Prior knowledge:
EC 1.14.99.50; oxidoreductase; iron; single chain; 3-stranded antiparallel sheet; binds fe (iii) ion; monooxygenase; 9 helices; EgtB; 13% strand; alpha+beta
Amino acid sequence: FAPEDPEVFRRRALTTLTAARDRTTLLTTCVDEPDLTAQHSPLMSPLVWDLAHIGNQEEQWLWRTVGGQEAIRPEIDSIYDAFEHPRAERPKLPLLPPEEARAYAADIRARVLDVLERTAFDGSRLTEAGFAFGMIAQHEQQHDETMLITHQLRRGPRALTAPDPEPAPLFTGPAEVLVPGGPFTMGTSAEPWALDNERPAHTRDVPAFHIDTTPVTNAAYQAFIDDGGYADERWWTPEGWAHIRAHGITAPLFWRRDGRQWLRRRFGVTEVVPPDEPVLHVCWYEADAYARWAGRRLPTEAEWEKAARFDPATGGSMRYPWGDDDPRPEHANLGQRHLRPAPAGSYPAGESPLGVRQLIGDVWEWTASDFTPYPGFRAFPYKEYSEVFFGPEYKVLRGGSFAVDPVACRGTFRNWDYPIRRQIFSGFRTARSAEDV
Ligand code: AVJ
Ligand code: FE
């Protein structure tokens, strides 16, 4: 991908936008119309809101801003402004009905492909206009993940299918990996489609630490449950303890005890919780409590990124744990190829030079860190993408899940959410400082 070459760039932008739209189409045609307009959870928008919001953001950034064209449907901007209307209120809005939402998104896309053909992409235009195309492709893919979360919350028979990941032999490597202390480069100034919060590249000194080789599995998490972890205040922060008590939380979301085993509902099918899969649908408080019970802690965001990008051979930072190549299927479980994480220890080709596995894909990993700007941060292209979220209310998640498309995933990519959230595809791994025994 050479962003200096306008033709290469045009082809890349076209493929990426088309892949996002194919996924959006799948997610919004596999259920009936009433399912598109229903609110499946107060935490989520109706699917038809996401669909028209995707089109509206594309109209605003690629048609109006990059294309310099007159607004097509300015009157709907406010309905699809995520800041004006919280998710719980969105079903009450005068939303475009499914057919109209589809036609609107398709009309904008056709116009935007003309803009893509006409734009010169030379000099600084390439960086600014070029960035906008990447941002909008990532935006659509992020809403596709959001819609997949809605699908998981939805009651009713299965609407989506995908092959399961390859079974993996039980992982027998070391449980943790030592990451040496010293400075490393965090964030990026080079990645053309990196979002504002990933920038700029800067040096961080990270003392030596140990990090789990794989994400924490369901079997390991069940040991915490069986040990009475949810009933023992010692493992929880005061906020976490108050939260699980108030909401009667005793297991990950979608889990249900059946005699001596745990069942879980996934995309309309009930199954026995698979022991070797990374645990999914836990909130930050649960991840933090598990780590304390295990005598460990969550990694900081800087530790996570160092584990994922540091190359001890060169002292530099790579784009991904496996190097600088774009993700291929043998590297990581990304892009909704599967509807679940792969067993812990999968994807040896995707491991870091130090041997840490599955940092990218499978499950979003909670970190200990609040969402804060890097030194030298500059909001781009709008404050509402990241800046308004900086502060102690949000915790950072890293690495992406099986539901994240490669275009919206890299070693520097940052996600964030409230510490109580667990409808997201969230799991975690644990760490400890090297001087601890
Ligand atoms: C980065 C996933 C927290 O979904 O709220 C979508 C991404 N920003 N539309 C979100 C986003 C604007 C954002 N997260
Ligand atoms: Fe959005």
